Amino acid sequence: MRIAGAAARLHERAAHIIRDCRTTMRQIRRALRAVLGFGRGMLSYPAAWFGLFRPRDELAALVAELLIVGFYGSNTRSLSARLLARQIRRGEVGGVFFVTQNIGTMDEVRDLLRLFRAGPARPLIAIDQEGGVVQRLGRTRGFTPLPSAQKVADTMSPEKARALYSVAGKELAALGFNINLGPVLDFHHPDNPAIGGAQRSYGIDPERIAAYGEAFAGGFASAGVLCAAKHFPGHGCSVVDSHYGIADVSAGWTEAELKPFADLLASPHPPAMVMTGHLRLESLAPDGLPATVSAPIVTGLLRHKLGYRGVVVTDDIDMDAIGNLMSRREATIRALAAGNDLIMIKNLFGYDPILPQRVVRWVRKAIDRDVLTEAQVAAAAMRVRAVREQAWQGKS
Asked: What is the C-alpha to C-alpha distance for residues 166 and 180, in angstroms, rounded to an integer?
């Protein structure tokens, strides 16, 4: 028996090592793609910097509202960050989001935030500050360490959790962030590497998940930081991380996974946004397309069945789950046609300085082909503007 047990442990350890090696190789390949893509993108940088040939009509202004874009680098010496700040000031982009590689020293983070906030544009400035392994600003940078969602639910009441999240919200707001990309409302499944394995879920009881989700959204909102509940319609039962491929939830997903979203949206402290995930759910989208670009899921399920009227933001469409299926252009148009309002584009792999101009052209052509209508674009822009006004209320 001892031999069999040792063999099982050895097999499990070997499986972990193989999985870790594959993850490392994927990260190396992604880093190489980022460097090569940035080099190619620099060819069009001068045209982007000077705004050559950029459209300035009403449609272009509407499309700008629909873009929340990432950047390359972790300080204000970054050419990518400087250009994005310039595009925000010119009204070409409505928001920016920070990922791990954008976080340098605290002085560098502050300088970047001042750069993006300069001028009258009042952008959405977002970050992932869930807690646990998904916490861009932690103890080493002087921030209150947030436990993982799983630990919060196991050790705190919703009231204590709300107080903790309120403190974290004040810290983010003091820096200049106004959007936190959370809470996670997905169910816990231990075999899920992206959610369960990372302890990002509050559990398997829908009411409990909603209660802690409300504590998260309410705590951050009390400090002036709005939230985006994720990953609709529920990422929990997948066994794939959507950074690297479509997370198929078709086999295990049930309608119970909608209840945390429904309950939170009907609560006294609903989040300002809902984020759609790159999740395949064949019972609702038999064409196999992920929720991010699926009208039956975004419009049919979230808008019509759950009655949601607020902003729907995509997960990053540059993630491999989408990038392996379609071009950035197709993903952007499909996401808008599906009912999303805010399109998140990291713009790191295949860096494109003139991305805002391209998106305007893509949308214009989609309207000409009757894939989108200008009324759809305008309605989405109005919803985003309302959130922006809320995010900047009382702030200079």
From this structure: 12
- Residue whose C-alpha is closest to residue 204's, from 218, 185, 191, 217: 185
Task: Dump pLDDT digits (tens) for 261-287.
Answer: 999 999 999 999 999 999 999 999 999
- CA-based nearest residue to 320, from 62, 48, 27: 27
Contact 146, 131 (CB under 8 A): yes
Instruction: Look up 243 and say whether it is catalytic.
Output: yes
The 10 Å Cβ neighbour count of residue 116 is: 24
Among residues 287, 360, 386, 275, the alpha carbon closest in space to that of 295 is found at 287
pTM of the model: 0.89
315 is catalytic: yes
pLDDT tens digits, 215-244: 999 999 999 999 999 999 999 988 777 777
The domain 2-391 belongs to what CATH superfamily?
A: Glycoside hydrolase, family 3, N-terminal domain (3.20.20.300)
Per DSSP, the residues of 244-278 read TS-EE-TTT--GGGGHHHHHHHTSSS--SEEEE--
The DSSP symbol for 303 reads I
Separation CA 325–CA 285 (nearest Å): 15
Single out the catalytic residue among 315, 318, 341, 352: 315
* Distance from the first to the final alpha carbon of the chain: 68
Count the neighbouring beta carbons within 10 Å of the beta carbon of residue 246.
Answer: 23
Q: Which of 188, 189, 231, 243 is flagged as catalytic? A: 243
Residue 304 DSSP code: I
Domain ranges across the chain: 2-391
